[in-house]
Structures are given as C-alpha cells and as structure tokens.
Amino acid sequence: MELMVAEDAARVAEAERFGREVLPAVSRTFALSIRVLPGALGQAVLTAYLLCRIADTLEDEPTQPAEAKAALLDELLACFDDPAAADAFPARVATLTGEPAHVRLTRNADLVFVLYRRMSPPTRAAVRRWVGEMITGMRKFVLLYPHGIRIQSLDEYKEYCYYVAGTVGYLLTDLWHEHAGSIGERRYAVLRERCRAFAEGLQTVNILKDVATDAERENSIYVPQELLRAHGSSHADVLSGAKLEGTQSALGMLVQLAWHDLEGARSYLLHIPRRAVSIRLFCLLPLLFAYATLRDLTRTPQAMARRDVVKITRREVKSLTLLGFLMVLSNRGLDWLADRVMKQRVTI
Predict the structure, then answer these.
(1) Domain shared by 272 and 232, yes or no
(2) What pTM value is reported for the model?
(3) Helix, strand or coil, per DSSP, at residue 221
C-alpha cells in the first residue's frame, strides 16, 4: 500500500511539473494569464486548457485520414472516464505529427489526465462536460470535411466557433462560479449570457490573423464560402493575388463580427466582481491583446489575405500587461484602456 501511494505521489509530481513546463510552449498568452489564477482554480484552468490543446492537435493532425482522427477523438473522450484508457493513450499517438510542442503534449496526455483526476468532483464534471462538447464538435467537423475544413456559411462558422471556443467560455464561467465566492447565482447568470461572446471574439481574431497559415499548413479555411463568393472570391482563390480585393472584403465582414464580439467580451469582463481580481486579470490580458491584434489587422487588411504575419510588439504586450495590472480594479480605467488600444499602440 505504501509503495502504491509513493508511486502515485511521484506520478502526480511528474504531472504537475510537466503541466507547468509545457504550458508556455503551447501558448504564451494563456500561460501568462493562467499564472495569475490561484490554487485549485489555476490548476483546473491549466488542466482544462491542456486538454483542449490535445483535442485541437488531433483535429489539426496533417497526415491522418478523417476516420482515424475521429477515432482518436473518441478515444480521447473515453479517457475522461477510464484511467486505463488515459494511460494507454500515448501509445495510440506515438506516430503523431505536427507542431513539436503540441505533439509532445499529446504524447503525454496520460499525465494531463492525472491532473484531471486530482480535481474535485464538481470541477471534473464541468471540465468533462465542456471539453467533451468541444471534442464532439471537432469530431463532427473532421468527418464533415475529410479533406480539410471548408466552412460554407456564416451560420456554420458560428457553430464551429461555438464548439472550439464558446464551450471554453461556458467552462470558465462554471469554474468561476464554483471557485470564486464573489460570483453568486445572480452574477453567474449575467456572465453566462456573455461568455460565448468573450471566447468566440478571441477565436475570430485568431482566425483572422492566421488565414494564410491555416490554409497553407493545416489545409483549413474558416472564412465562409458564402462571404467570399458574395465579394467575388472563393475558397479556391483565398490565397490568390488576383482575387485579393474580394477576399479582403469578405474578411471585413468577419472583422465586424470580431469587433462586435469583443465588445461583448468587454461587457463580460466588466461584470466580473472586483473582488475576483485574479479572474479579472485572466480575462483582461487576452482581451487587450485581441483588441490590439484586431486594430493592426484592420489597418493592414491585405495582410489577412496574404502570407504576412501580424503580431503586436513585445513592447506593447509588456505595456498592456503592466497597465492591465494597474487598472484591473477600475471599470472606468479598463474602458479607457480598451478604447485607447482600439485606436493606437500603447507603449510606456
């Protein structure tokens, strides 16, 4: 019995080390945000985020046929309820290809599920529900577009964003309600009305800045075909210089959607109680970075339809982080900061 406990303790320690180490390799932005969350809440969000990244890695795997990817997503889903399946999962993805940090994470999924099983039953239930919903949606789109995702309509685009991002908004809000005493039933209901806009706004900004990368490297085009055709372009021409103007016009429609959702995200942030300061910080930083990224994309619309990389500068990231920490308790200050970021680069 003592040997079993010692082995368990050693594996838990290994899993905790792995989680902390791999997080910044798979997301610098959320690594910064997750670090501000305390204790069990921070561990829950870290674990949930890593599980989402594993699912995303399987969805984006560049060499596996659709049926094989769907089967792996099914097996990943089974890992939530079966520790033996979780321990066996790394062997199932031993030949996985893709971005090295994400592949490494996925090949160590068993360690992430060690962290998952360490969480309280209510936290596990929330993570299981919403990450499971994400995996189910990813599986649907993998099989719907076996030769690479080609979103057809704006309604389908919104459905896809719900599965890969909106679910995260609901998950986070459920975790805030469970772990933050200042978020009672009434405030929880208000946040739940706005949480999809928060998550899906960030997702649309990511899609806009990676249009060319997604098409070239992942064989995925998320810009709806109906929007492209309405402006004289198409999925086949999304990287074509000859149809650049039409593609830019279609992307402009998604830009408007992103601005709208980011305003909803701002409302979500400002309804988080000031006493939940760490949660406000967690939501604030990616929102500020999204505002800055969308601002730069709007100023260089040709970049979205070409192979240009649009990234906010490290100096602005540091400035926004510092200002965010200074103003996090003031709704008026955050409103001012968001409005300023929308209009110009912020450096101090």
Answers:
(1) yes
(2) 0.93
(3) strand
